[in-house]
Automatic annotation (TrEMBL):
PROSITE patterns: ATP_GRASP. Keywords: ATP-binding, Ligase, Magnesium, Manganese, Metal-binding, Nucleotide-binding. Its cofactor is Mg(2+); Mn(2+). InterPro entries: ATP-grasp (IPR011761), ATP-grasp_RimK-type (IPR013651), Rimk_N (IPR041107), Rp_bS6_RimK/Lys_biosynth_LsyX (IPR004666), THMPT_Glu_ligase (IPR053432). PANTHER family: BETA-CITRYLGLUTAMATE SYNTHASE B-RELATED, RIBOSOMAL PROTEIN S6 MODIFICATION PROTEIN. This is SSU ribosomal protein S6P modification protein. It comes from Methanohalophilus mahii (strain ATCC 35705 / DSM 5219 / SLP).
Length: 301
């Protein structure tokens, strides 16, 4: 029986439990692992353990969550994944693809380099350039470089800070930008793309879009499900499917959640999530991405 490590941080996470169930149903031994428990011994031999689990004994690894943060612990965990991968253990998604996707600036660069349409974007490191970018865009989004679940996203339109629920914030734009610059040391700014009041999350596995949903904010402009957004079934056009598959390939992910926005100039890719939740697709369509991921992995083994 194949032994598949499933990297997790939250045992109650829907996608985590679904991956474990899908693996068990395919006569695979799923082994939940929290890489925060990992240790490496380097001497005559190099050994990798997480508790009593010898990571070298795994036949493959699925990364649901390698753990957050931006310190040395995260670097260490991704070093472990790269080293296990170099030893011949398939890791999906690969540590390189997860890092590509997680860094929003770099992901946008990779997509644009491949001629995949993305919103006009500025990366800046001082307040004046940030204010100039906001003025040139008119309506702009400021995102944390390594944010997730829609947290820390801000919108400034014509110098007015707009909260996710659509209400206005009286904080002066320069004061807000100054605070963000002091905290983050650089700002990732994108033009806000006027849209039908929704965005699209497509779930890609291999070279196939297995399902897509519309995400709509109950009120305001931030559509993320974790921020209270609602879902509806979405049937993608062929062009949209091809865009999602190309985006996934460029990031290097074998499965991903690809976020599209429908602007007046056509579809654009907002983000690629290389550790996506499958809950939204399942609850909307009854499609279980975990089963597709396990099938895809078994084709490689």
């Amino acid at each position: 029986m194949k032994k598949i490590g499933i990297l997790i941080t939250d045992p109650e996470d829907w996608t985590t439990k679904s991956l474990i169930e899908a693996a068990s149903s395919n006569r695979i031994n799923p082994i939940p692992i929290n890489l925060a428990d990992a240790e490496v011994t380097i001497g005559t031999n190099i050994t990798y353990h997480a508790g009593k689990i010898n990571l070298h004994d795994l036949d493959a690894i699925i990364v649901r969550d390698a753990g957050g943060g931006n310190g040395e612990g995260v670097i260490f965990r991704f070093d472990i994944l790269r080293q296990l991968e170099s030893c011949g253990i398939p890791v999906i998604n690969s540590p390189a693809s997860i890092q590509n996707a997680a860094n929003k600036y770099h992901a946008t660069y990779l997509l644009a380099e491949a001629n995949i349409p993305v919103p006009p974007t500025k990366g800046v490191q001082d307040i004046e350039n940030a204010m100039n970018a906001l003025e040139s865009f008119g309506d702009a989004i400021i995102k944390p470089l390594f944010g997730y679940k829609g947290m820390g996203i801000s919108r400034i339109k014509n110098g007015q800070l707009i909260l996710p629920d659509g209400n206005l914030d009286d904080t002066p734009a320069r004061e807000f930008v100054s605070r963000m610059m002091n905290e983050r040391k650089m700002l990732y700014i994108q033009k806000y793309i006027a849209n039908p009041g929704r965005d699209i999350r497509a779930f890609v596995v291999g070279d196939e879009v297995i399902g897509a949903i519309y995400r709509k904010a109950e009120k305001g402009w931030l559509n993320n499900l974790s921020q209270g957004g609602n879902t509806e079934k979405c049937m993608l056009e062929k062009e949209q499917e091809e865009l999602c598959i190309r985006a996934c390939e460029k990031i290097g992910a074998e499965y991903a959640g690809v976020d599209l926005i429908e602007g007046k100039d056509g579809n654009m890719v907002l983000e690629v999530n290389a550790t996506p939740s499958g809950a939204g697709i399942y609850r909307t369509w009854g499609i279980n991405p975990a089963e597709k991921i396990i099938d895809h992995l078994m084709e490689r083994l």
